[in-house]
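dude i think i finally got it to work??
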Amino acid sequence: MASKRVLVVGGGAVGLAAAMRIQQRRPDIRLTLIEKEDAVGQHQTGNNSGVMHCGLAYRPGTAKARLAVRGIGQLTQYCVDKGIRHDVCGKLVVASRPDQLPRLQALLERGTANGLDHLEILTPEQMRELEPHVGGLAALRVPQEGITDYPAICESLAADIQAAGGRVWCGAPLTALRRDGAGWVAVTPKGEVAADYIVTCAGLQADRVAVLAGERPDVKIVPFRGDYYKLKPQRQHLVRNLIYPVADPQFPFLGVHFTRMIAGGVEAGPNAVLALKREGYTRTSFDLADAWDALTFPGLWRFLNRHTSMCVSEVRRAFSRELFCAALRTLVPEVQPEDLEPGGAGVRAQAMRPEGTLVEDFDVIVRANAVHVLNAPSPAATACLAIGEEVAARLSEAMG
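look at this
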């Protein structure tokens, strides 16, 4: 009996991890992964802050909570096994106002419910033993979190896939997907790929790829760009590891924070503003089709109308170093605008419903011969190996 053929679309952390887990679960299959860019991990995975998120803030029982807690352990071990740079340095979540103190306690309870150990609320004196320049009234110490090199993880996963007999085609954007009996034929500039089963993990293009497969998803990917500054070298001593604010529970964004990078240096950010290009990493990036897609989506306008003040604040901060710095000073009071220099940017693929609500959890569609990952924003990179296990399990059930 001929081996089943599996096609994975998307070479970010989730697609690569899913492909590797599928091979581990079903070593008899023939697998091909296609990625439209010339290398893997070029978008969300390669442009994030490098933080390994442990599942602190996610609602207990959700896929995000469950998979982040399991995933950070798996990813840390993977880094150990493969010799990939990482540092489980821990982070502080800082309450800078009295009204944030109850939310800090709620975070401790939520993290504990999610299975995290050794969480503790620190006094200002205890906080400054870890981060001498931090401000705030109290902080939650999260020892499990850390930093890593996600591009190196992606390269390692691609190598694992190939070592197990799979193919990784870069520079192969999916231009069409048609049915061929009970299977599929994917069309790319590098040629056609026939498959009995497909798995799509297309990140910023997830909804469009699902449509190519004949789906009619009830969500739209709305891209939010996050801009970063970097602390100038002479001011990097102000931050030792990771310093975060108490996030607003209404939004999936964590607020501007400080991150020590695995390659050196300290990033500050990001904000969250609507991107007019799904894969655009500057303030002037624009794509007519992407902009039209977002601006004609009723859900976006309902979201903007519901959260006008937050959206206006984020846009103002995006164009003002002083306002950006003011938010950072709630965490580290000594930081001044002149301490900041432009950093990078990332774009978050956020699934949004027509009524204007954000899809908070991971969203996966399972069909008889297809699995589509529709929503996998942060902490998907951290949880990629755990998400990959779930995708592989669902595909294996479909394969029988």
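The chain has a mean pLDDT of 95.
im so relieved honestly
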